[in-house]
Specification:
The structure is a single chain. With 399 residues, this protein is of the alpha/beta class. The protein has two domains: 261 residues, Rossmann fold, CATH 3.40.50.1820; 95 residues, 434 Repressor (Amino-terminal Domain). Helix content is 39%, strand content 18%. It is built from 14 helices and eleven strands. The strands form two sheets. It has a nine-stranded mixed β-sheet with strand order 1-2-3-6-5-8-9-10-11, sandwiched between helices. Strands 4-7 form a two-stranded parallel ribbon. α5 links the parallel β8 and β9. α4 crosses α5. The longest helix has 21 residues.
C-alpha cells in the first residue's frame, strides 16, 4: 500500500529538475517559428468555457469564450539542428485586435500524449492555459521538444531547449494571430508550474536579456519550480525530503535525458543498478506513464542508482557538471520587471528552498516570494493560479 501511495504521488507530481538557460539562444535556421500545421481543438462560448474550467477545479473569472488550436512549428534541437515541435495556442473569443500574451509552461510529463496540445485524458495543463484565454489573454503552452507531436525524446529540464521551444511557439503564435487579423503585444507575461516553473524562469531570463527578437517580458510568475538542482533538488531527492517515487522519477528522467546531450555514461549499467539498467532508457521513450515508470523501478534512488552516480547527483564533475550547468542558473539575472515566485512549505516534490535560493540569486527588489503555506505540490498550482491571474489582470490587463 505504501508503495502504491508513493506511485500515485509521483503521478500527481509534476516534477521538474531545475533548469538554467544560456544567456543567448543558439545559432539557428532562419525559419524558426514557421508554422508547419494548424489544428483546431475546441471553440467554446463563455458558459461552456466556465463549465469546462469548473470541471477541472479551476475557479477563475471567465470574460469570454475561447478558440484553441494545436500548432506544429519549426524549432531547433539541443544541438542546434532543425526539428519540429507542437504547442497549444488559445485565443479569446472577443473583438480585441491587439492581445497581451501569457506563456504558460507545463509541468513534468513522461507521455507524449499528455502534452497540452494533444492531451485528451486529464486536460489539467490545457485547462490552465484556457483559463488565461478565458480572461481575455492570448495564451500559449509549448509541449516542449519530444512531447506532443514532436519527434524523438524529451530533453527533460534542459533549459536552453525549453527556452527555444517556448520562444519559437511565441513566434508561431504571432504569425497565427496575424492570419486571424490580430496582433500580439510583444511584452509577454510568463508563468508555469513545477518543471514549467523553471522553464518559465529560463524563458523570462532570455526575454529579459533581449535574445528573442520581437518579444520581451512584462512580468514573471513561476510556481514551485526546482531552480537549484545541485544544492537543493538533487540532495532533497536523496535525503528523503522528496517523496521516494517522485525522487526516483526525477533523477532517472534527468539522467537518461541529459545523457543524450552530455554523455554521462557509455552503458546504463554505469549509472543504474540491475535489473533497472536494462529497461530504464526504454521507460523514458515518451510512451510510458509516470505510474508505469515508478512501478517498474525500485522504491528509492539508492536502490536504482549506482554509488558513483549517487555521488555525482550532488557532487557533479566532468560531463555531469556540464549537464547540471544547463539545468541550473535560470535565476542568475537581475530583473527590471516584477517577478513573483510562488512556493509552499508542504511541497514534498519540489522543496521550498528552491524558491529561496532563486530569490537570493535574483538579488533584485523587483523579485518577491509568496509563501503558499502547507499545501502540497499539486495544491500549490491550484492556490497560485487564481492569484497570478488576478495580478496579471490588475497590473497587465489583456488589452
Amino acid at each position: 500500500m505504501d508503495r502504491l501511495r508513493r506511485c500515485l504521488v509521483a503521478v500527481v507530481v509534476l516534477l521538474g529538475a531545475a533548469a538554467g538557460c544560456a544567456d543567448t539562444e543558439p545559432e539557428s535556421p532562419p525559419d524558426r517559428g514557421a508554422i508547419v500545421s494548424t489544428t483546431p481543438l475546441m471553440s467554446l462560448p463563455p458558459e461552456q468555457t466556465a463549465a469546462l474550467l469548473a470541471d477541472g477545479d479551476i475557479r477563475t473569472p471567465v470574460r469570454n469564450g475561447v478558440d484553441a488550436f494545436r500548432l506544429e512549428y519549426r524549432t531547433i534541437t539541443p544541438q542546434g539542428g532543425p526539428t519540429t515541435a507542437s504547442g497549444l495556442v488559445v485565443l479569446p473569443r472577443s473583438d480585441s485586435r491587439r492581445l497581451r500574451v501569457v506563456s504558460y509552461e507545463h509541468g513534468t510529463i513522461t507521455l507524449k500524449s499528455d502534452a497540452p496540445s494533444v492531451d485528451t485524458r486529464n486536460l489539467s495543463e490545457r485547462l490552465r492555459t484556457v483559463a488565461f484565454a478565458a480572461a481575455g489573454y492570448a495564451a500559449t503552452a509549448p509541449d516542449y521538444l519530444g512531447l506532443g507531436n514532436g519527434p524523438g525524446t524529451h530533453p527533460y529540464t534542459h533549459a536552453p531547449s525549453e527556452t527555444s521551444a517556448s520562444a519559437d511557439l511565441l513566434r508561431a503564435a504571432g504569425s497565427f494571430a496575424a492570419q486571424q487579423h490580430r496582433e500580439l503585444d510583444p511584452n509577454v507575461l510568463v508563468t508555469g508550474f513545477s518543471q514549467g516553473g523553471h522553464a518559465a524562469m529560463a524563458l523570462g531570463k532570455a526575454l529579459h536579456a533581449g535574445t528573442i527578437p520581437g518579444f520581451g517580458v512584462a512580468a514573471l510568475a513561476p510556481i514551485s519550480g526546482p531552480y537549484d538542482l545541485q544544492h537543493v533538488q538533487a540532495p532533497a531527492a536523496l535525503d528523503g525530503r522528496v517523496v521516494p517515487g517522485a525522487a526516483v522519477l526525477f533523477l532517472s528522467y534527468w539522467l537518461t535525458s541529459m545523457n543524450r546531450i552530455h554523455p554521462l555514461y557509455d552503458d546504463p549499467t554505469e549509472a543504474f543498478q540491475q535489473p533497472y539498467a536494462d529497461k530504464v532508457e526504454e521507460l523514458f521513450d515518451g510512451f510510458h506513464s509516470e505510474i508505469t515508470i515508478v512501478t517498474s523501478l525500485a522504491a528509492t534512488p539508492a536502490q536504482v542508482l549506482t554509488p558513483r552516480f549517487l555521488q555525482l547527483a550532488t557532487e557533479p564533475t566532468g560531463a555531469a557538471a556540464a549537464a547540471v550547468a544547463e539545468s541550473d542558473g535560470t535565476c542568475d539575472w537581475q530583473p527590471r520587471v516584477p517577478v513573483r515566485l510562488y512556493a509552499s512549505h508542504g511541497d514534498r516534490a519540489v522543496p521550498y528552498p528552491n524558491a529561496e535560493h532563486c530569490l537570493r540569486a535574483l538579488a533584485s527588489g523587483n523579485a518577491t516570494l509568496r509563501d503558499l503555506g502547507e499545501v502540497d505540490h499539486a495544491g500549490s498550482a491550484r492556490t497560485a493560479l487564481p492569484e497570478i491571474l488576478d495580478w496579471f489582470q490588475r497590473e497587465f490587463p489583456p488589452n
